[in-house]
Design a protein that fits this description.
Blueprint: H1 4-27, E1 40-43, E2 47-49, E3 63-67, H2 68-72, H3 80-84, E4 86-90, E5 95-98, E6 100-103, H4 109-116, E7 144-146, H5 149-152, E8 160-163, E9 168-171, E10 176-179, E11 198-203, H6 212-215, E12 221-233, H7 234-238, E13 250-254, E14 278-283, E15 292-302, E16 306-309, E17 321-328, E18 333-350, E19 353-362, H8 365-376
Parallel strand pairs: 3-18
Antiparallel strand pairs: 1-6, 2-5, 4-5, 4-12, 7-15, 8-9, 8-11, 9-10, 10-13, 11-12, 12-13, 14-15, 15-16, 16-19, 17-18, 18-19
Length: about 375
């Protein structure tokens, strides 16, 4: 029988293999995807809004439904300028609405058309009808608890942060955190916890000469930082419940910059252009309190706005930064980049069959332009991926 130390070493070894092996295989045949055109958002002068009531309750177990038409619709079919407008919530409770114009919209319609009408091989496979049971753990639980200073504070795990409403976020700049919109807003009003929203940074317990086997059992501490500004797309606020998952993302601006490494954003490529066809994310799942939980899995399906997968997850993981190894043409190497935000669970109804997936919102060229503008505050730094 293995000792706790041997068990911990074995877990860490398996984790290293899952991180290194897919990259090694992908390096044998690196793709050369064409450059992605990013449209330009032109913001108008913000308009003051009434103060939020903060009357909503946080819904960590977020579930939606989608049918054939919602799966196949493309971004070009939307009223883009209206949905890409955004609300800004300030720390004092005041709000503004910023409307936008979109320049260069026509140049990316071909890419949107590809995902809006996937080829037959990307069609969801028809599975036998089953009892409708919410599944967020598929088969054997494939999640890893990230423990110990060497892993917990190492990139990319160190980019995962806690949100005070019970969700997860990912560091995307020295002062910004990307998370799920439903963690701060229910589509009608801001949640009660958004009034004094905070972001939690993990601080591993000090060793102080303690044996490694005992140290690994200690829970990390959390240092909380207040949020200065919260931004949510209008597509989430006004969207009907069954399709609003497409805009389930929000950006939090911290009151003070942090000093930790952050993860760069990227327009989500086709799953064929991801190393190993795999996505990864780390979050604070509710069934493992105080633990950072990492998982990875292949992409099962993809639409114009969503990434469908069976990565094991529980409530609390919402808002995790979904990343993959993306080929960077300018650097000529593979880079870990955030390509989506873990949202929750979706039932996909096609041809009378019901299939269940865990779902991430994919960062499209338009969403990249919007989030990039939120981060940088100008258009010059957001003209290309």
């Amino acid at each position: 029988m293995m000792t706790p130390r041997e068990s911990s070493l074995l877990t860490h070894l398996l984790l290293l293999l899952t991180l290194i092996l897919p990259l090694t295989l992908s390096l044998l045949h690196p793709p050369h995807p064409p450059p992605v055109h990013v449209p330009t958002l032109v913001p108008h002068t913000p308009t003051p809004l009434s103060r939020s009531r903060f009357s909503a309750q946080t819904q960590l177990d977020f579930t939606t439904h989608c049918n054939f038409s919602c799966f196949h619709r493309g971004e070009q079919d939307e009223q883009l300028s209206e949905k890409l407008a955004f609300e800004t919530l300030y720390a004092d409770g005041s709000r503004t609405l910023t409307t936008v114009d979109v320049e260069g919209e026509d140049e990316f319609e071909a890419d949107a058309h590809f995902f809006a009408h996937p080829s037959p091989r990307r069609e969801p496979r028809v599975k036998p009808r089953h009892k409708r049971v919410r599944r967020q753990i598929y088969g054997a639980d494939g999640r890893f608890n990230i423990q110990g200073n060497n892993f917990l504070m190492d990139y990319p795990f160190s980019t995962a942060v806690r949100i005070s409403t019970g969700c997860t976020g990912v560091l995307v700049s020295q002062q910004h955190v990307l998370t799920a919109a439903h963690c701060v807003h229910d589509g009608k009003d801001y949640v009660k916890g958004a009034r004094k929203l905070r972001v939690g940074f993990l601080i591993p317990p000090s060793i102080n000469g303690t044996k490694a086997s005992l140290t690994s059992a200690k829970k990390p501490l959390v240092r909380w930082v207040r949020v200065k500004r919260t931004r949510v797309p209008k597509g989430w606020i006004q969207g009907p419940q069954e399709v609003s998952m497409d805009f389930d993302y929000a950006l939090l601006e911290l009151r003070w910059p942090h000093r930790r490494p952050f993860m760069r954003l990227s327009v989500a490529p086709s799953s064929d252009d991801l190393a190993g066809n795999r996505i990864h994310f780390s979050g604070f799942d509710s069934d493992r309190p105080g633990e950072l939980v990492y998982r990875f899995c292949p992409v099962e399906e993809e639409s114009s706005d969503l990434i469908y997968q069976h990565c094991d997850a529980r409530p609390g993981a919402s808002g995790s930064g979904v990343y993959g190894r993306v080929w960077d043409n300018s650097l000529e190497r593979w880079e870990r980049k955030v390509i989506g935000i873990f949202s929750g669970h979706q039932w996909l109804e096609i041809d009378g069959e019901s299939r269940d997936y865990n779902v991430a919102v994919r960062i499209t060229p338009l969403k990249f332009a919007q989030i990039c503008y939120w981060v940088h505050g100008n258009r010059i730094d957001c003209v290309q991926d």
